[in-house]
Amino acid sequence: MEAIIQFLNYRLDEVKFKIKKSKDKNFQIGYNFNLHKGGGEVILETILVEEDFELFLRIIGSFATKGNMDESSREQMFAINGTSILYPYLRSSISSITLTSLNRAVVIPTINIVEALGMGTKNLNIKN
Predict the structure, then answer these.
(1) What strands, in cross-sheet order, belong to the sheet with 39-49?
(2) What residues make up the domain containing 20?
(3) Which residue, among 92, 106, 65, 68, has the nearest Cα to 10 in the 3D structure?
(4) Model pLDDT, residue 66
(5) Where are the alpha helices (DSSP H) in 62-122?
(6) 34 inside domain
(7) Predicted pLDDT at 17
(8) For residue 33, what pLDDT is reported?
(9) Kind and range of the H or E run holding 41
């Protein structure tokens, strides 16, 4: 059986990394998607603030779709499946950037995408 959604590629669209001292800690992830006939893109943005650095990262995944679906089903598929596929690339990118810059890899937590999206907002509900 052929998949309804096919992952084509991803790219890091924007990266901002700053070494700085901070007493604040913050971790947020937001998502969005652009749908078009035959596919779309999932966009994940994260802000990660630790005691010694601040990182902003935007990653965009491109997907192709097959079959006919109503708009609501397409949105749900991109929100859940697209985000589930793209999230490990976000995690890996953060680990690579911090390892190169800080000589230690920061590993953000794995999450249950369905549960995290359950709030019905454009932000993933991350529990530390």
Answers:
(1) 5-19, 53-65, 39-49, 26-36
(2) 5-119
(3) 92
(4) 85
(5) 71-77, 83-102, 113-116
(6) yes
(7) 96
(8) 87
(9) strand 39-49
